[in-house]
Amino acid sequence: MNAVAKALELPGAFILGAGAVSSKSVGMNAELMPLVVTASEGKLAVNGSYLASINPADGKCLQEKYSDKYRDCDFGLLGNLYACEGKPGKVLEVKASRRTGEYSLVTCLRKTLENHYSDKSLALGGTFIIQKGKAKIHIMPREFSSCPLNSNEDVNNWLKHFIVSAPLICQSVLVSRDPDLDLRVEHTHCFSHHGEGGHYYIDTTPDIVEYVGYFLPAEFVYRIDRPEMTHKTGRD
Ligand SMILES: [Zn+2]
Hints:
By secondary structure, the protein is mainly beta. It has 2 domains: about 1-85, no CATH class; about 90-215, CATH 3.30.1330.80. It has helices at about 1-5, 25, 65-70, 105-115, 150-160; strands at about 15-20, 30-35, 35, 45, 50-55, 60-65, 75-85, 90-95, 125-130, 135-140, 160-165, 170-175, 185-190, 200-205, 210-215. It has an 8-stranded antiparallel sheet. Strands 1, 2, 3, 4, 5, 6 and 7 form a 7-stranded antiparallel sheet that branches. The two termini are about 25 Å apart. Bound molecules: zinc ion. The site of zinc ion has 4 residues, from strand 13. Zinc ion binds near residues 18 and 199.
């Protein structure tokens, strides 16, 4: 993430979002909830990230604070990162309760932007809290798949799914439509103060769910290290 901040010409960037840990750093595959102030002149990076892996003891979610064990600011596989200066200022406040449709809060935000700005691509980053209810998440296994995952079904069978409880702190990066950069158009990871976290899909308690979130539109979208060969598998 220090290298990302450098590429953005934003030293000391405050970064949040959704990604995977660097398996080289951590020694396994795991979900990453990045929360980092990157290094700047004379100042070391501050890494407040969380990671969630499958606990080998019971097969359940194991959420840890990154800085309790690891010292770097690396990530692996992919990262959908929102970087800002970390200063106070105007933000978008989003409050919602009860879900009446099939889409998650993040997908609703994205589709609303997509419909309203029909000729533009608009990106948002930010954080929201699921204050009440439960949510569906996944956590990748500690071991990478030994065989290729060629379909969404393959990916879903490889992932471990869980239902987790509020309060959940979620970090979202979304773009209303892909501006031909081969982007994942939305990605949200969550963590909590009760040991649950991972890749967020949607709440599972539409009648009682409550959300409050804060977002900011992006000035720029950067595509770093774009793969030469692409596919659409496992993007949901
Ligand atoms: Zn994810």
